Amino acid sequence: MPKRALIEHRPWLLASIAAAVAFYFLRDNPIGEIWLMPLKGAGVALLALYALRRAGGTDGRLLGLALGLGAIGDMLIMLEVLWGGAAFFLAHVAAIALYIRHPREEPTGSQRAAALALLLVTPFLCWLLSGSVQVGLYGLSLGGMAAAAWLSRFPRYRVGAGAVLFVVSDLLIFGEMGPLALDTLPGLLIWPLYYLGQFLIATGVVQTLRGERLATAWQQ
């Protein structure tokens, strides 16, 4: 898409990217976490506004809800991990509700196998890396979200891949609780992987829904 069209029609995406990049480079700034909370939440909150404005209808509201709860989780987790985890759990439930409204017709055996692996392996790895049963239970919602995205009719290499990036980002967080506690690499990758995942999910779903809506209007 030309740069001018992006500026005119996707201001929420540009603002979201700017907020996400700013947080990444300021996250260790001595101004303190409380002051960085709004900036951290703004990245995905602006994606939620983009979804609500561009998609509309029940699907747009579900996507906006999932992204909005994710933005709340981004902020709350800076105060208390349990609060942030609860918000993300609800975000995954909203995302699952969206994806199961749009199942893929006749998924292949490999697609079904990948979804099953995401559903079962994700919570196991969450528990294994963190040593926490609560985190393992959270992993059920995370894996369920990724599996539902993979089996939805939304593009796998955008929405499905975005969901997988979300999973990888969370696994790195849980890895920091245990075997990766002294490794600096997870801290560098968690936010970029998470935000890119949310960005791919938001844009993939919105553009699919809008494309279908425009095609239907054209046929009429």
Can you offer a commentary on this structure?
The chain is built from 9 helices and no strands. It has helices at 3-9, 11-26, 33-54, 57-76, 81-100, 109-130, 133-150, 156-175, 185-219. The chain starts with a helix and ends with a helix. The chain has one domain (3-219). Helix 6 (109-130) packs antiparallel against helix 7 (133-150). Helices cover 82% and strands 0% of the residues. By secondary structure, the protein is mainly alpha-helical.
In short:
This protein has 220 residues and is an all-alpha fold. The protein is 82% helix and 0% strand. The longest helix is centred in the C-terminal third of the chain and has 35 residues, at 185-219.
Descriptive labels:
220 residues, mainly alpha, 9 helices, globular, transmembrane, transmembrane helix
Element order: H for helix, E for strand: HHHHHHHHH
Q: How many β-strand runs?
A: 0
Most strands sheet? none
Distance between the termini: 27 Å
Into which percentage range does the β-strand content fall? under 5%
Determine the mean pLDDT: 90
What order do the helices and strands come in, and which of them pair?
Elements: H1 3-9, H2 11-26, H3 33-54, H4 57-76, H5 81-100, H6 109-130, H7 133-150, H8 156-175, H9 185-219
Helix pairs in contact: 2-3, 3-4, 3-9, 4-5, 4-9, 5-7, 6-7, 6-8, 7-8, 8-9
